[in-house]
Design brief:
The chain has a 5-stranded mixed beta sheet. A 5-stranded antiparallel beta sheet has the order 20-19-18-17-21, with no helix packed on it. The protein has a 4-stranded mixed beta sheet with strand order 13-14-15-16. The longest helix has 26 residues. α17 crosses α18. By secondary structure, it is α+β, with helices and mostly antiparallel strands.
């Protein structure tokens, strides 16, 4: 073909990966036809080369002697110099920039930018330094080589005169990530530490564009972490990354009110093993010059407004009791507090429940206590009191009695409880603890991105409501009783009860999550076979309709449609888009609740599928009769394990034959032959054969 084989490189790379599968990453590195054999000690060179040549000889691979070099202390690989010290910049590429004169036209600036990009992994904060070059390359800008451009050009020359040596991370060791942001660019450096020495592994930098220039400082830091994870994906997947920063990135990415891009970033970053530490002293000079991180004060511990209102109410009741009052009228500007005391509102927060109990306990010591909300037109005295609170004690009005509450009147005392589904998520969000199993740790990081901790309480980020309070097993009895009160004493099913819990602002999964993918390939192939008949080449035209049919049809194995298990709601057919149906017109709150229940829906679908498989297996095993295949018997062979039928591929029939059993080898192994006596190569297992009835 005139355009060549587009997948030849990928095919050849898979071949090389198979040949050196046991050596790659240890003594061999391969990129297509570029092979690098490495050894840690000179004495092991011959043994390592023997293993490389044995693999080549085993697969019939030959090397060109003119392109081979041996016993080299340094060599060029993929455009970089590989030495015992680490990865170094190619001297030829560095000299190309060092020998350049100051650009005199736009073409020279573009050439300079391209050369800097090739060496960007060795240049810390290169995007921020190269901003004068980027401004020259904008459309409609008149070329003018300014003093800022000359200063940046000389700065890059100074770095490339003695570029830093990048380290080689070891398998299993943690890597450290430092982040830096400015008003117009972001940068990061990945570091390895050994014996109290730091060595950079990779520098990442990028200029901010468009709306990114309006991001807050913490958003830019989160973006720098996201860009680093995408650029250094291979490092993030194979190492634990410790992010060292004095900023609250972790708290920002776990905020309950995340939306839009920040929510997307948090979910994408949850797949990696990330830990956060305060930034330590930077020992390497190359990184010290690179990092200019934003600074900020740590967030202070604040008291909620409702808690302050309850404290003021309790203080007033204590004062009234000390002066001997028997009847008290309380006027408060807090509608929440007054409504909870008068039982118009329900106190759901555990801390406010404790305050409410304390207030009721104190009001029982009076003959009469009236608590009423102060309307806006009568709020003058309340405003005056709030201003007096802010004055210094003993200044101005000597008749004013002021007291300072050093500790809260009510505090939540946590007691140890039995393990529950909340513990792994809470331990990860608060302490960063992960299970030892790698698969379970990855699933927990992905799951924890949907939760947030506020004042020690775990909440799930919902769609019907911003936050859903997660219930501990010892809290469910009270909540269920309250929910059942609204059901008029009638029994309701599990799904209906879950919906009522969500509408009430609670979240209580009945079991831990266990995601599962459902096999659909064989169903799609069966649908194509029914539509195509003998016209196998038209499968691409029929595929969209077959996929739509499968995705919107309720499956007997799960009881749900694949579309609902993926998106949480049923699919909308094209007819409903042009003329909305009652189902769409009435959608809203109920649809949001269904999306909050998608995890439980998937879990129930998984359990339904597992139970169905068990029933089918029991029924099959009860009726199956063992039948031995003997010589000269006619059998059919599965078509999807051998060479496919020419011209049909996957759309061919599932069984082909008949064939004759030539020899019984025992333990379910057989030799086959065609009806004309020609032997079929290889041995066939009984699981891929079945008896043929003419």
């Amino acid at each position: 073909m005139p355009f060549g084989l587009k997948n030849a490189g990928a095919t050849y790379q898979r071949l090389m990966n198979k040949i050196f599968s046991e050596l790659m990453g240890k003594t061999v590195e391969v990129y297509v036809d570029d092979i690098l054999a490495k050894t840690a000690r000179p004495d092991d060179l011959l043994d390592d080369l023997n293993g490389v040549f044995s693999s080549l000889r085993q697969h019939g691979m030959r090397l060109n002697p003119l392109k081979c070099a041996f016993a080299m202390e340094a060599g060029k690989f993929l455009g970089f110099m590989i030495t015992q010290r680490g990865v170094e910049a190619n001297p030829e590429k560095c000299q190309a920039i060092l020998q350049m004169k100051s650009p005199g036209c736009l073409k020279d600036v573009q050439r300079l930018a391209g050369r800097l990009t090739a060496l960007s992994r060795f240049l810390g904060a290169s995007a921020a330094r190269a901003l004068p070059f980027f401004n020259l390359m904008r459309k409609g800008m008149t070329f003018e080589w300014t003093s800022a451009c000359e200063e940046a050009f000389n700065h890059f020359k100074e770095i490339l005169a003695a570029p830093p040596v990048l380290g080689k991370p070891k398998a299993g060791e943690p890597l450290y990530l430092y982040l830096s942001v400015t008003e117009e660019a972001l940068a990061a450096v990945l570091v390895t530490e050994e014996a109290r020495t730091q060595q950079p592994v990779y520098f990442v930098s990028r200029a901010l564009q468009g709306p990114e220039l309006r991001y807050s400082k913490l958003e830019r830091l989160a973006l720098a972490l996201l860009v680093s994870s995408r650029r250094l994906r291979q490092y993030f997947q194979s190492h634990r990354i410790i992010v060292r920063t004095d900023q609250t990135i972790r708290q920002i990415l776990q905020k309950p009110d995340l939306a839009g891009r920040m929510m997307t970033w948090a979910i994408e970053l949850s797949q990696y093993d990330l830990q956060y530490e305060p930034r330590h002293a930077i020992k390497a000079q190359a990184m010290a010059d690179f990092l200019v991180e934003v600074t900020g004060d740590p967030p202070e511990e604040t008291v909620s407004n409702n808690q302050a209102e309850y404290e003021a109410l309790l203080g007033g009741l204590m004062l009234a009791r000390e002066v001997g009052a028997t009847r008290v009228e309380v006027c408060s500007d807090s509608q929440v507090v007054t409504s909870q005391i008068n039982e118009s509102y329900q106190a759901r927060d555990p801390l406010l429940q404790k305050y409410l109990e304390k207030v009721k306990q104190m009001t029982s010591q009076f003959q009469e206590v009236i608590v009423q909300h102060v309307p806006r037109e009568r709020n003058t005295r309340a405003d005056l009191l709030s201003k007096l609170v802010s004055t210094k004690p003993g200044s101005g009005n000597r008749s004013l009695i002021q007291g300072m509450v050093k500790e809260p009147t009510v505090a939540l005392h946590l007691t140890e409880s039995s393990p529950s589904w909340l513990d792994p998520i809470t331990n990860f969000l608060e302490l960063g603890k992960l299970p030892e199993d790698e698969k379970a740790a990855k699933a927990l990081r992905r799951e924890a991105a949907r939760y947030a901790i506020i004042q020690g309480q775990l909440f799930k980020k919902g769609l019907s409501q911003p936050l859903l309070k997660c219930l501990h097993p010892d809290q469910t009895d009270y909540v269920l009783r309250e929910v059942h009160k609204g059901c008029c004493g009638h029994h309701i099913g599990g799904k209906a009860l879950a919906r009522k819990l969500i509408r009430a602002g609670y979240y209580w999964p009945t079991m831990m999550k266990d995601s599962k993918e459902f096999a659909a390939n064989k169903v799609v192939l069966l649908g194509l076979k029914k539509r195509l008949d003998s016209k196998k080449g038209n499968w691409a035209d029929e595929l969209p309709s077959v996929l739509w049919s499968y995705r919107t049809t309720e499956q007997s194995a799960t009881g749900e449609t694949p579309f609902r298990l993926t998106y949480g709601v049923d699919a909308v057919i094209p007819v409903e888009i042009g003329k909305p149906s009652p189902r769409l017109l009435l959608a809203g709150m109920s649809e949001a609740v269904e999306k909050d229940l998608i995890e439980e829906t998937r879990e129930m679908a998984h359990l339904t599928e597992t139970a169905l498989k068990q029933r089918i297996a029991l029924r099959y095993n009860a009726k199956i009769l063992k039948r031995d295949i003997e010589e000269r018997d006619l059998i059919l062979r599965r078509n999807d394990i051998g060479v496919p039928t020419p011209g049909e591929g996957k759309l061919a029939t599932n069984w082909e034959g008949p064939y004759r059993v030539r020899e019984v080898l025992g333990k379910g192994a057989y030799k086959l032959e065609k009806l004309d006596g020609k032997e079929i190569p290889r041995t066939w297992n009984a699981g891929n054969l079945k008896r043929f009835y003419s």
